[in-house]
């Protein structure tokens, strides 16, 4: 008998707010598709889990994004996010369907929900993962053991964590770490309604009012072109902004620039900032510390400008300019303007 008899499939928590599904759920479904394709002998499916109120009609979107099946818990107590009711429901879903692994976005909601559910189930959870693989050597024994990698020791090392003794194997993954597959509206799948059984319907915490955060300026995670300012460009941020503007993109910054008070934390890229994956990232006067690289290395094209030929940023750049940003940026801007004519 297999060690984890009855446990199967990769489940993904599909986070929604006010009926709008967060991209991270679709990113995780796309990655889960790749994982199940790497173990065809296990016959696993990708299952989306959608919680909320009046959200059942969203299940088809989840299927179009790659899920084979969607479990929907549509209940008035799940209207807004409640740790208590969401954790109750998710725990019951996992106990009922026995997923082999369960992936959640490392969003504010996911970071609150996933550990609570893992603790209730006595399951292992790897938080803030940046890479997920399956140990192919274990597949012959009928096991789909996840190898989950995350930054550790302040981002100086990457650790790969396994949870071999319990199921489901749980992980939270930051938004923008994985790419999202194109939508396929011709896909078909199964939608299963799940009715949670709340033992206690008295909310321990009552949310009186939700005040949406006012995002000042541009959301860099949604930009297709980013020009990153590092400490080496602190005295010419106007030039960085001008190049970003010419390219129809936005400026972002390293933590050094934020800590030095030249940029807002909202535009910080990296391990303690945002993860971005634009089609073009121009790093200006950025050394390429691993904590910065962790937030932008998945960009399609990386161009680095740095006066130090040994700077780490060149090791991940597709193209580099060795020189002073103050000399190179104006030339770059001129070239862009000329190319647009
Ligand atoms: P520096 O390291 O000071 O590099 C400046 C670069 O500019 C150098 O390579 C230099 O050669 C070049 N330069 C200088 N002048 C010029 C010029 N005129 N023309 C061209 N090049 C020039 N960092 C982040 O960015 N994001 C994070 O989220 C983040 N999280 C962290 C979390 C932890 C736990 C820790 C410990 C650190 C974190 N850091 C983060 C900090 C990170 O380790 C680096 O200190 C930081 O990224 C350095 O920023 P920088 O490259 O802009 O500055």
From TrEMBL:
<dbReference type="InterPro" id="IPR014730">
    <property type="entry name" value="ETF_a/b_N"/>
</dbReference>
<comment type="similarity">
    <text>Belongs to the ETF alpha-subunit/FixB family.</text>
</comment>
<dbReference type="GO" id="GO:0033539">
    <property type="term" value="P:fatty acid beta-oxidation using acyl-CoA dehydrogenase"/>
</dbReference>
<feature type="binding site">
    <location>
        <begin position="285"/>
        <end position="292"/>
    </location>
    <ligand>
        <name>FAD</name>
    </ligand>
</feature>
<dbReference type="InterPro" id="IPR014729">
    <property type="entry name" value="Rossmann-like_a/b/a_fold"/>
</dbReference>
<keyword id="KW-0274">FAD</keyword>
<dbReference type="GO" id="GO:0009055">
    <property type="term" value="F:electron transfer activity"/>
</dbReference>
<feature type="binding site">
    <location>
        <begin position="268"/>
        <end position="272"/>
    </location>
    <ligand>
        <name>FAD</name>
    </ligand>
</feature>
<dbReference type="InterPro" id="IPR033947">
    <property type="entry name" value="ETF_alpha_N"/>
</dbReference>
<feature type="binding site">
    <location>
        <position position="231"/>
    </location>
    <ligand>
        <name>FAD</name>
    </ligand>
</feature>
<feature type="domain" description="Electron transfer flavoprotein alpha/beta-subunit N-terminal">
    <location>
        <begin position="10"/>
        <end position="209"/>
    </location>
</feature>
<feature type="binding site">
    <location>
        <begin position="254"/>
        <end position="255"/>
    </location>
    <ligand>
        <name>FAD</name>
    </ligand>
</feature>
<dbReference type="Pfam" id="PF01012">
    <property type="entry name" value="ETF"/>
</dbReference>
<protein>
    <submittedName>
        <fullName>Electron transfer flavoprotein alpha subunit apoprotein</fullName>
    </submittedName>
</protein>
<feature type="binding site">
    <location>
        <position position="306"/>
    </location>
    <ligand>
        <name>FAD</name>
    </ligand>
</feature>
<dbReference type="Pfam" id="PF00766">
    <property type="entry name" value="ETF_alpha"/>
</dbReference>
<dbReference type="InterPro" id="IPR014731">
    <property type="entry name" value="ETF_asu_C"/>
</dbReference>
<dbReference type="InterPro" id="IPR001308">
    <property type="entry name" value="ETF_a/FixB"/>
</dbReference>
<keyword id="KW-0285">Flavoprotein</keyword>
<dbReference type="InterPro" id="IPR029035">
    <property type="entry name" value="DHS-like_NAD/FAD-binding_dom"/>
</dbReference>
<dbReference type="GO" id="GO:0050660">
    <property type="term" value="F:flavin adenine dinucleotide binding"/>
</dbReference>
